[in-house]
Fold this protein.
Amino acid sequence: MASLRAALSFVESAVNTHKVVVFSKTTCPFSILAKKILTEAGVQDMKVFEIERREDAPEIQEALHNITGRRTVPNVFIKGKSIGGGSETAELYQSGKLREMLQEQGIIK
């Protein structure tokens, strides 16, 4: 069992290394939705961590809670900033704000 400190370091490193990161679970409908929306929005380089496949999943969820205030997945990050989960990602996409955000960050054209 990993420590919370190690999980915090892992999450912080991941979100600072990759432009788009999704902490996800393979069978979660909201995780599936978020990944689909990001793909439809044109994101080609997305780092996905299917946390239920990791031994440190509980610690990662606790680290996400410490960083973002949300323990649930998906937890979507763009350029190091959490934009929320599946519902929030869908709302941003439907309003056009997700595409704007991705363009401003140079992630899509």
